[in-house]
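Worked example 2:
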Amino acid sequence: MSFTPPVNAIQFLLNYAVDFDAITALPKFADTNAELVGDVLNGASVFARDVWAPTNWDGDQNPARLNGRDVKPSPGFKAAYEGFVEAGWQTLSVPADIGGMGLPSVVSVGVNEMLYGANMALGLCPMLSSSAAKAIEAHASDTLKDIYVGKMINGEWSGAMCLTEPQAGSDLGPVRTKAEDNGDGTYSISGQKIYITWGDHDMADNIIHLVLARLPESPDGSRGISLFLCPKYFVNADGSLGARNDFSPIGLEHKLGIHGSPTCVMEFNGAKGWLVGEVNRGLTCMFTMMNEARLFVGVQGVAIGERAYQAALQYAHERVQGRPIDGGKTDPIVHHPDVRRNLIDMKTRLMGARAIAMATAAADDLGDHKRAALLTPIAKSYGSDMGVLAASTGVQIHGGMGFVEETGAAQHYRDARIAPIYEGTNGIQAIDLVGRKLRRDGGEAMTELIAEIRTIKDLAVKSSSDMSSCAAALTQGLESLSEATQIVLKADEKDALAIATPYLNLCGHIVSGALLMKAAMGGQKANDPLAENMMQLARYHAVSIMPLASAQLGFIQAGAKSLFSFPLLQLADL
């Protein structure tokens, strides 16, 4: 169950799938160069392989446990986290003026994929800490920033987000946790929060919770929710830690996967908190945290899919069963055509999803926030879906051994399955894409993306290599994407919601294939020795994955009637 981070794949996409030269030309990234990035990626690879990856199985088999008011993490996690903090990985893409390394976010995507692949459950802790710190930096008072941001950035303190309640999940309007003004600049927070990832542990000295709560007389629904900062331990004037705040975990969820990540039920009993942002604007502040987290959940999907792929590839090289069509009795199953098809399908889909995640981060680095916002729900959903698909295929390649725990294939599938659910289900991502990101601006951002993809198609048509299958597939894909976009823009609300997920999937198929083609042609132009391998993946995508877009178009053309024409009362039985 070893894991070797895919440094070559990440580096290749960084060089050729995104406009990294344009990123490093920006003044804020003036100190970033290819040599530095190579050193960072290689260093992260070694750390992920040698320090984090060995803790993955123990985390699954020995979950975090509740001990009184405290949570004790899985064996080896604390030492692995301390190594992470000591090496400074938490500060990677944090701006230098607030204590970070100031590297581009697209580099952070590559590094974090390695860490999530090594141990996804452990990787959730710094992911949430980074997002929480950025929300505090963006919305909190200078006093709160001075106290908390620095130590969260370096990992000495961790962060958690407390949104969900038993009656308030995807819809946070029904939040009941109460906040009362103490009259001294602080608030008293009372209520119960569930599904709080890394809500408690002893790996960091303090845990800073961002809590959604409702003040008296606030409006009903999401318009009446405020955001509060509640530290596990109060901070004294000299920066030392003081007494414990009045909240604690009262239970841990027993989950399908990510066993090493404690998912807490948190009880707030008049806990002291400080307002972050404006009263009744809590969701606006929280989305600063959630938008970054959504991108990195997509990266998690790619990461766990990569780990599942590596395990399946290793097993396929070792397992002997049957005689391959052009081999001998002792040849392993990797020589069977269907096993080979499964492997190349996993690899291609993951590479495409990886490229979307990197393109999303690159858009943010370049200041193209409209493009980043458009791609974020696609990156989250497509990456997490491809992770589940790859992990499921990995179980299949293992055969019966995939259905038992000792190979680790089952853990990959169990761990992967959460990514399409948390940080906003993939159905909600699809609604966000068609509602907020597409229809709100009349399709302007998507039109710009389609124009850029069209230039990739034109380059493929003119390419000296055999890109005919890629050019033909992308031509058809662009027609499907353009038509689907116009349908969504003109649809009524019911139709738009009914076709949202097929539309997102269509986008994922087209954008991923286009980025693989861009990378392959860029690598070829640079005479990169790995360019032909990427070219083969682009060709496979063109004949096997991109054509799926036209199937999605058929559903989009049908609209809501394909869902609602069947009688509701007969869904149970014909």
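The chain has 20 helices and eleven strands. The chain has a mean pLDDT of 95.
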